[in-house]
Design brief:
By secondary structure, the chain is an alpha+beta fold. It has one domain: 2-Layer Sandwich (Beta-Lactamase). 48% of the residues lie in helices and 19% in strands. It has a five-stranded antiparallel sheet with strand order 2-1-5-4-3, sandwiched between helices. α1 packs antiparallel against α3. The longest helix has 32 residues.
Length: 163
């Protein structure tokens, strides 16, 4: 799960967007997006105009949570890949480490085999981005004495600012 205090640096955001763009193009997908495990949309690339990506991100996280419950009932740790086939569109969902969820929506311009191949490569690349981000966050925390700069702000400070 992503740290609730996660700060996505601009360079990391660019790397994520670049990887999603590459995945979307090479896999011939309609849309690819990355969601944290709480259902917050991190990034999206592709034909997003007709898709409510915010709702889809939230529902995807719920799907992962429900499937995790089923996995535990069957004695599995988790199911790291999910696939839903529709009449026109298909959805491939894959966990990126324990940090995020990669969602790829595709139609008959692509195939499940191509999607799986490209997703596997992208998951590796995205995992590296998140690992480096975690290192940066740890380094930043240690430089700040392990505390957030916002912990010193009180309700009185907020009231005086907006009051």
């Amino acid at each position: 799960m992503l740290n609730p205090g996660l700060v996505l640096f601009e360079e990391d955001s660019r790397l994520i967007d670049k990887e999603l763009q590459k995945l979307n193009q090479l896999a011939r997908a309609k849309v690819s997006f990355l969601v944290d495990k709480d259902g917050q949309l991190i990034a999206s690339i592709g034909e997003t105009g007709d898709i409510d990506t915010t709702s889809l991100a939230s529902l995807t996280a719920g799907n992962i949570a429900a499937t995790g419950g089923m996995a535990k009932l069957l004695g599995e740790k988790e199911f790291s890949i999910l696939f839903h086939e529709g009449e026109k569109d298909n959805i491939h969902i894959s966990l990126v480490g324990q940090r995020a969820i990669l969602v790829v929506v595709f139609d008959d311009r692509s195939s499940l085999g191509l999607i799986r191949l490209r997703v596997k490569r992208s998951v590796t690349a995205l995992t590296e981005v998140f690992d480096k981000l975690a290192e940066k966050m740890a380094k930043t925390d240690s430089q700040q004495g392990g505390s957030s700069p916002f912990t010193e702000i009180t309700e009185e400070d907020i009231e005086s600012l907006f009051g």
